[in-house]
Amino acid sequence: MSDRPLHPDDAILTDYLMGQCDPVQREQIARRLDEDGEFAKRAEKLGGLLKVLDAAEAPEVSELVIARTVEAVSAAARTEALLAREAVVSRPVSRPTFSFKELGAMAALLFIAATILLPSFQRARQLAVDQACQAQAGQIGVALGQYANANKGELPAMGRTDAAWLVDADGSPVSNSRNLWRLVQDKIAHPQSFQCPAVRKPEFPNVAQMTMLADFPSREFIDYSYHNGVNVGPVRISGEHLGRAAAEMAILADRTPVFPDGRFDPRCLNQSNSPNHGGRGQVVLYLDGHGAWTDHAEVGVDRDNIWLVQGVSHYRGIERPVNATDTFLLPNFLAPQP
Tens of pLDDT along 189-242? Predict the structure, then answer.
């Protein structure tokens, strides 16, 4: 760091640019800016520097740095309090006042504290939401396990080989969410368990009346994609052909980014993360019942992409997994066609 002393005009211009001058000083400086070219150039350089500092994003800092910063501020405050107490003894009591510079220093201190603490608070909130989503996916996993135990070890599926699961497919599409709705019909899971905590959603109406429905009322009430249960047979939770793959085979995750609104868009084929969490990642539920957070899509068996069928790049709504361990999570909901 340079030891060169600051130019006297730097302090004057800094106060001026930060709005810490009284009206008389502002008028004097403004007049000088019009008359003194060098003074105006120095003001322009300082103004540019302040803009850069104002636009800079605060870095993520550790809790240790925050604690030390707060301790330093507290220590400085205690020192100022002691000096002020000693000064009271040697001078008459007067009403405390603050100069523009003192107020500016306090504002700067508050700004520094905010840039340190705010990113940490935002990250803590994101982590809390991600953990809540993971816990909710775990609840769905428990419900799926209960359903399988009551249905010969099979997860809910239609097993219709002639069904289509895309809105723009030939014929009448079938919503894969009907399979998850069976957990609500059987009173194994509450319908709100299928709403991701990261997405603001309306509350369900009368649940007792809704159990008479065949599917979720609309896509606003289900935020999770489920493995293809439309045109394939049901998956068994303890199938011998799976073996150790059960811990790596995804059966449910946050909403798929590949089929927005239940339609195929080739521009979305390279999308890796669910829109539920702003594209940061998704919670994935595996066949063995455990859930995990991931920030990419290749988390299936042998690094399988959980959103796509292996080797397929164009979809009509009739595609199905190429083998027993090929995870293929369908759109969360398809609206009935008129």
Answer: 988 889 998 887 667 666 666 667 889 988 888 999 999 999 888 888 876 666
Neighbours of 278 (CB within 10 A): 10
User: 250-254 and 282-286 as β-strands: parallel, antiparallel, unpaired?
Assistant: antiparallel
Degrees to nearest 5, angle at CA 196 with 192 and 201: 65
Q: Using CA atoms in the order 304, 271, 160, 153, what is the torsion angle rounded to 10 degrees?
A: 50
Distance CA 226, CA 68 (A): 47
Q: Which two tokens stand for residue 245?
A: 């793959």
Neighbours of 156 (CB within 10 A): 21
* Residue 33 maps to a domain: yes
Tell me, yes or no, whether 77 and 149 share the same domain: no
Q: Which domain holds residue 66?
A: 8-122
Note whether residue 224 is domain-resident.
yes
Q: In the chain, how many domains are there?
A: 2
Verify that 251 and 115 share a domain, yes or no: no
Q: Would you place residue 337 in the very low, low, confident or very high pLDDT band (cuts 50, 70, 90)?
A: low
CA atoms within 13 A on the CB side of 303: 0
Q: How far apart are CA 31 and CA 25, in angstroms?
A: 10
DSSP-derived secondary structure for 34-77? HH-HHHHHHHHHHHHHHHHHHHPPPPP--HHHHHHHHHHHHHHH
DSSP string, 72-123: HHHHHHHHHHHHHHHHHHHS--------HHHHHHHHHHHHHHHHHHHHHHHH
Q: Residue 22 gets which letter from DSSP?
A: -
- Are 139 and 184 part of one and the same domain? yes
Q: In whole angstroms, what is the distance from residue 102 CA to residue 108 CA?
A: 10
Q: Has residue 63 been placed in a domain?
A: yes
Helix 177-185 / helix 100-149 crossing angle, nearest 10 deg: 80
Distance of CA 257 to the CA centre of its chain: 15
d(CA 196, CA 281): 13
